[in-house]
What we know:
Elements: H1 2-29, H2 37-49, H3 53-60, H4 63-70, H5 77-87, H6 89-99, E1 105-106, E2 112-116, E3 126-132, E4 135-138
Antiparallel strand pairs: 1-2, 2-3, 3-4
Helix pairs in contact: 2-6, 3-5
Amino acid sequence: xxxxxxxxxxxxxxxxxxxxxxxxxLAEDKPDPREELATAVPEAIRxxxxxxxxxxxxxxxxxxxxxxxxxxxxxxIKQFAEQFEKTHATFLLEILQKIEGIxxxxxxxxxxxxxxxxxxxxxxxxIVFEKVDKYWYMLNTSPPRPAEQPNxxxxx
Length: 156
């Protein structure tokens, strides 16, 4: 009788470990939504709709721009998020909703993506994403699109 209880206990422990391991493996296999523009934009929309501004900013601002913000004296990410909520969150959500599902214009290296959004009163008619390593981030500036850049041959 004791042997059966021991075997059932060991089986239970084994199954629990196996279940825990499979959940861990599944969590690790799930790609970060920023790896593809098609998933980055919906993720950005989700965070803005949930008003998770700090997470949105730390997730979608390029590491270089985020580092600049972090280096500001007497200015925290929390304060940055509060300012963002008051000044940019609403129209940025509108812009992201307009570009969702639209193919962007890419540079020749596929590292910059321009979406033309057409949102009235926005600072620019485009929103730009830049791929840094394996993640896409939104840029605070709007560099010229490839179609707007002068041809190198023309400048000789």
